[in-house]
Specification:
By secondary structure, the protein is of the alpha/beta class. Helices cover 38% and strands 16% of the residues.
Amino acid sequence: MPHPNHWHQRATAIVEQRGSQQLLRQRQCVEAVDGRTVTIDGEQYLQFGSNDYLGLAFANEAIAAKGAGAAPLVSGYHRAHQQLEQQLCRATGYEAALLFSSGFAANSAPLALMQAGDRVLADKLAHASIIDAAQASAASLRRFPHNNLEILARWLADSDAPTIVATESVFSMDGDQAPVAKLVALAKQHGALSWIDDAHGFGVIGRDGLGVAQLAKPDLITVTFGKAMGASGAALLGSKILIDAITQHCKHYIYSTAMPVDLAQRLTQRLAGLCCSAPRQQLQRLIEQFRTGALAQGWPLGDSMTPIQPLLCNDTAQALSLAQRLQSHGIWVPAIRPPTVPQARLRIVINACHSSTDIDTLLQALGANR
């Protein structure tokens, strides 16, 4: 029989071990935030941590609050949900969509198709939601080296097992992009299903900001609404037959209360204006300004031309120290540490609400701490 204090002792050991390694995860209560600034403990900081790439999180649509009341397959599928799904399909060229309460939930959905003997081949840096869902499925999981299509092609040729190839369009911690057109073509060549998590690409990449759908035609796409759309929730897009099949087995969809109706209405409004090019052009100018200045100072940056700009650090101690020193200059940038990433870093995120002066302020603070 376990000791009565077993679980308390285990929890204590976990927390103490993480603390001793400078890896303890802790929440920071934010009192106020907008596209540019964040207020913490009464102090206002210029913030470079939010995924609100286009500055839409604080748009003030006049929409009354309204819940869904039930799961979608009971009585929770409202006209607003249907309209959002239809608008997503018109924008991206897909036949059907399913809405979810989060990107993590949406990324469980494709794995509902898997049976024993099937395979999931996922990029080594694919999001934890993809990996968790694959490990919980009946399929086997194998992770190919990051963006290495040569090895992926070899693995695809090794077996006739039904296979899903999964990756991200823009990688959440590194900001670099997958070679999606080549990957989709490779999967099709080998009869595999291609699935792209477009969480950090939707609203940012593509000719009109509509993400990976304007770069390739994967069989399935996950788009999330908590990044460039400035809200929460997600959708899975695909052919009607795939979406219908997933609806039969995806437990997150079947047993979860549907997205609030007012959120679906808000997202439909924001989607209508997503193709406006001015915020994306502003965003690209700021990214180029930051990269030019930071590289000139000798900072090691990741290979990214997206809003996610990782400043790579030697170890956790350096990342924490640099984040604290920037905070003393009035700048809030989160330090990202293992096990979230293999190499500690500052994950600097630029958005369209920032100004050229904001980027100069960040660069000046970085230069003072080089």
